[in-house]
Amino acid sequence: MKTTPVLAAIMVAVATLTGCASSSYPTDTNYSTRNDASTYGVIDNIQVVRVDPATSGAGAVAGGLVGALVGNQVGSGSGRAAATAAGAIGGAVVGNSVERNRNQPHDVYQVSVRLDNGDYRTINQDNVYDLRVGSRVRVVDGRVYRY
């Protein structure tokens, strides 16, 4: 049994799918010019917004690997290589679809903070607990905390 075509098909599928992966939405959309670990300010606005999370590509990679393994069990010779490639592509499409359906759109709080240095930052976070407009806050690693 020749494993070289099978491994080549799997590597091509993984490389292709990894290149298609996108990152999740940014949580901090206005970056300060200074690299402070924490920054102080006052909450200017709080809104509830619906976000559509992007897929990470993990579902496509996992689906591609499973599809390649299943496709490798079919046929022999060049037919096996073709079945492996087709299985990898089909599995990747199904895996990406499953991941997208699992990551449903959800609501987050968009908190606008006017920093002490005059800059503005907009932070998306899942809760605001005791945060209110006008609250004195500290921004640490993309999260807003009452100060």
Description:
By secondary structure, this protein is α+β, with helices and mostly antiparallel strands. The protein has helices spanning 4-20, 58-71, 78-102; strands at 38-51, 106-115, 120-125, 136-140, 143-146. The chain has one domain (4-146). A 5-stranded antiparallel sheet has the order 3-2-1-4-5, with no helix packed on it. Helix 1 (4-20) runs antiparallel to helix 2 (58-71), helix 1 (4-20) packs parallel to helix 3 and helix 2 (58-71) packs antiparallel against helix 3 (78-102). The chain is rod-shaped. The relative contact order is 0.23.
Q: Total domains, how many?
A: 1
Radius of gyration: 23 Å
> How widely separated are the two ends?
66 Å
Helix-strand category = alpha+beta
H-E string: HEHHEEEE
Q: Give the neighbour order of strands across the main sheet.
A: 3-2-1-4-5
Name the helicity range: 25-40%
**Oligomeric state of the chains present here:** single chain
Low-confidence stretches: 22-33
